[in-house]
Amino acid sequence: MLEFRYLARKRGNCRISTNRRRRTFSVDKFFKISERNSTIGNEIIGGLTTFLAMAYIIAVNPSLLEAAGIPFDAALTATCLGAAVMTVAMGLIANRPIALASGMGINAIVAYTLCLGETAVDWRVAMAIVFLEGIVILVLVLCGLRKAIMDAIPASLRHAIGIGIGLFIAFIGLKGGGLIVPDEATILAFGDLSSPIVLVSLVSILLAVVLQALNVKGGLLISIVVATIVGIPMGVTPLPTEWNFGLDFSAFAAPFQTVPGTDTMAIVQVFLQPALLLFVFSLLMSDFFDTMGTVVAVGEQGKFVDKDGNVEDIQPILAVDSVAAAAGGFFGASSITSFVESTSGAAAGARTGLSNIVVGILFVVFAFFAPVIGMVSASATCGALVVVGYLMLSDVTSIDWSKIEHAFPAFITILGIPLTYSITNGIGFGFISYCIIKVVQGKACEVKPLMWIAAVAFMVMFIVG
């Protein structure tokens, strides 16, 4: 009898173990983790790294949108839940480690140009403009135009976009960490080494580089956490002063809310003021090409870009990103877009959409605990961003520097992205210069029609401003 019980217990344990293996295998199979030479641990670390690198948006976006007239709590809820929903959607549908959140730049346009500038529209109308821009981009994706434009870009320019973004990311890290500061005489200057902000930045860079050299798993994440802790006694890491545990959904469905003082919905107001449609075009250009650059950059780090710069299975990525733009307007969070900081997670080992699930869960959690994220300073993430920038420069050897029609457009793209603080501007410079050089060389017929269309669109954007 005792032997029978022992065998039964043993078989039961085997059954439990088998079930556990099946559950693990199902996650592995769904996200293709082993197929992409990753592990669940790598995906979790990658997701944590991406989240910490982009978590500043939780503090920055609500502050910008509050200036536009949206209640802070409503903007915070919209920012966190919008990012969570669309990041998880990217993970489940496209299965790529590309996280999304309200885009910096576009949120500033919404706040300071649309709502507080000469146009001075209600914030609900601004969100309706964002919503319409997302719908237009989605139509372009469904028609195959967005992918066709990416396919029309010469390989040298695709590589240049990723390299330029690498420099951009490193520049953002150095600027946020106080190592690069504005200067009236020289435009830029070296920061004050005695400043606590700079000292914490140096700690984060040193840690990130050393851990990268030692091939320590999660090295970028460790550098962020340690630098955050080091910054506490130095007064660099801000400690929470208040807690907010509530959610405010009053910004949701903003385009379909009635504008105060009128009896019409916000989205109707856009069509009643045709001049606002120019903003739809302007935001569309920014979203369209920012995402293009981001996807290429993350793809190179995540190993889903081929030697010619073609992104594997790009259509679902572009579709989710397009829906996210419209969703941002609907949530009242400004346009939600792919975040270039996702490259840090890819550099930390993320290869699948499982890392996105981690990011999405953290966004939901910190919708209630935003002050904790406020503790992660720009100095703490400086090292991770600098190392990611260094990693992205490795693609520079893929460009043919012996031919000016490839070399100069690549050069001006690489230079333009960080110096104008805009991925879209850098891409525009590259497109226009490529077409001009081809015309001068008598090779205009080699330029694909969609490249001409994109170059003209950029020229219009630059002229109109």
From TrEMBL:
Bilayer-spanning residue ranges: 40-59, 74-93, 100-119, 125-145, 157-181, 193-211, 218-236, 266-284, 357-390, 410-437, 449-464
Alphabetized UniProt keyword annotations: Cell membrane, Membrane, Transmembrane, Transmembrane helix, Transport
Localization annotation: Cell membrane
Entry keyword annotation includes Cell membrane: yes
The name this protein goes by in its record: NCS2 family permease
Pfam families documented for this protein: Xan_ur_permease (PF00860)
Single Gene Ontology MF annotation: purine nucleobase transmembrane transporter activity
GO cellular component, one term: plasma membrane
Coiled coil: none
Annotated membrane topology: Multi-pass membrane protein
UniProt record similarity statement: Belongs to the nucleobase:cation symporter-2 (NCS2) (TC 2.A.40) family. Azg-like subfamily.
InterPro entries: Azg-like, Azg-like_bact_archaea, NCS2
Xref: PANTHER family: XANTHINE/URACIL PERMEASE C887.17-RELATED, XANTHINE_URACIL PERMEASE C887.17-RELATED
Highest taxon listed in the record's lineage: Bacteria
Main location (coarse class): membrane
